[in-house]
Design goal:
seven-stranded antiparallel beta sheet, four-stranded antiparallel beta sheet, Umud Fragment, subunit A, elongated
Amino acid sequence: MNERDSYNKWIGVLLGFLLSGSAHFLSGSRRTGLKWFLGLAVSPLLVLTIFCLPGLSFYGIGIALWLVLFAFWIVMLRQSYRPVPRIGWLGWGLVLVIACGLRYALPLGLKTLVGAYKLPTNSMSPTVQKGDCILVEKITYQWGNPERGDIVAFSAQGIGLLPQNEVYLKRVVGLPGDTIRIDPPYLIVNGKALLSPPIFKKIAGGEPPFFGFKSGVRSSYLTKPTDQIVLKDDQYFVLGDNIDHSVDSRYWGPVPRQNILGKATRIYWPYNRVDQSLGSE
């Protein structure tokens, strides 16, 4: 390649930094360039999905895969140190447009799969404590519905008494069609005390640090043992694990299905809390 018709090799690195695989593609290795582009564009979505899976092992695997992905990116940049034909202003504009579009599309794609939130209160303590940073995966509920015992994140949009732009984290205790009432220390679902999954037996039994199920102070729903609510086909009843310090469905009613964003699967920070289960054990 004539030097007058090509850029300095460091420009190839710059192109690779802006758009993975572009230096390979422009220098004639089109198949390799496309592999780098697609691989480094799609891999973060797969790695983040693995990182969200519950269990300490998946946390470690996720971290390891992020490091591997970073190493591959460095390899791609090193291979981009090559002569690249001049592409002119139009070519640079196209590279920048694609790069900016990808920078916008990737975070958007990640947000459709996973949400990251920080819990501001102790309403879900001890399962999730104030200050815990959690990941909420959104894939499961694209194909199915929340199950009893799931910890879910939901939008407050359209729910009275709540700030409309906030996202809340609570545990699902009532499913569509259920009849719910509270007869302390038990939560009664369809005429029977809720003792399964195991987390509900722990709460009802008052195992420290739980207190048993009870009506909320100045709550609007289930204020007496005889009060009950029948959930509609698209409604879920949610409570905080820390029943004495939680504002939940006892105060503002059921959560519509359309408001539920995803299932909390992992505490990712602080590090000493990453092995905390967010299941219904």
